[in-house]
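So, is this right?
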Amino acid sequence: MTELPSRAEIVIVGGGVMGTSIAFHLAEAGVKNIVLLEQNELGSGSTCKAAGGVRAQFSDAVNIQLGLRSLEAFARFPERPGQDIDFRKVGYLFLLSRKEDVRAFEQSIALQNSLGVPSRLIDPAEAKRISPLIETDDVIAAAWGPDDGLATPEAVVYGYAKGARQLGVHIATQCTVTGIERAGDRIRAVRTSHGTIETDTVICTAGAWSRAIGEMAGVDLPVTPYRRQVLFTEAMPNLPPMPMTIDFASTFYFHAEGRGLLVGMSYQEEPPGFNLERNDAWVPTLLAAAEKRAPAIGQAGIASGWAGLYEISPDHNALIGEARSVSRFLYATGFSGHGFLQGPAVGETIRDLYLGRTPAVDVSGMTADRFAAGAARPERNIV
């Protein structure tokens, strides 16, 4: 690691998609002397353990708009910042087997359509044509978003980081934040394992580690880490084209990855914490869901897998904004599984908040203090 500068205009804590996107967008806007700190390697937190899905199918208008703007940015990524991210517009398919879910998705789709997202409700037969591996005996309907798709998370991080460096951002990996110094209600410095950086602005994009960073500054960021695991199947001969497919009731999902599939689901028995060890306790639940919804997957061999962390907020919606109690502490965290796909738009948003501009998407309702004010805004379209 190169020597840290003694002074910075902004210190960004966390080198995943949020941190690198924000660094790039700020530097592109002409902000100088930006330092980005990452405790391990870029993308080594939640970002590069993401499933790679990118979508605008949400139930919250802010998430729909952030997703839509990010999809547009992913499509242009080879030109700006200039990196191939293997963006594939394969679509997202939510399978619905409960009447209450159909009603909820009808409402969400109406909102999505009003904001320019071409999603629609389709019947089980069309769903099976789109995703041939599925069984639809108990499926009532499905929500289909043809403009959604997949991208490679590590390539997105690398692209933003490369662009940020070219614009003068100092990126330091293997550098842990150990404290944030304040003078009254103003930030004055960030202490790290490699020295102290004087600054009056900190942007927290530390994902699952954000609560601790917030505490250093005296800001409550109610983010709780939970382990999530995914598996990769062995090669499956004659694998048909398919979208990201999600069985909404069970949260079981899969999409093509190489010559096989990436498969995953939430595990209700998972305790909170930073455990990143893989184990098989959740596999029987996964296989049972696969056997019901896509039997060919249950019969495929398992080649590998990994464990990552979700950063869960109390309402499964992001925390985006600037602290009121501390001068110039901004944050983008708590995305609860949909952070990677919103990285481009959130980078624009934090840039604008820092510069005093009006963001393209109104995120005023996403601040961390919404919980104390009794203004939680649950996002329903999550897995």
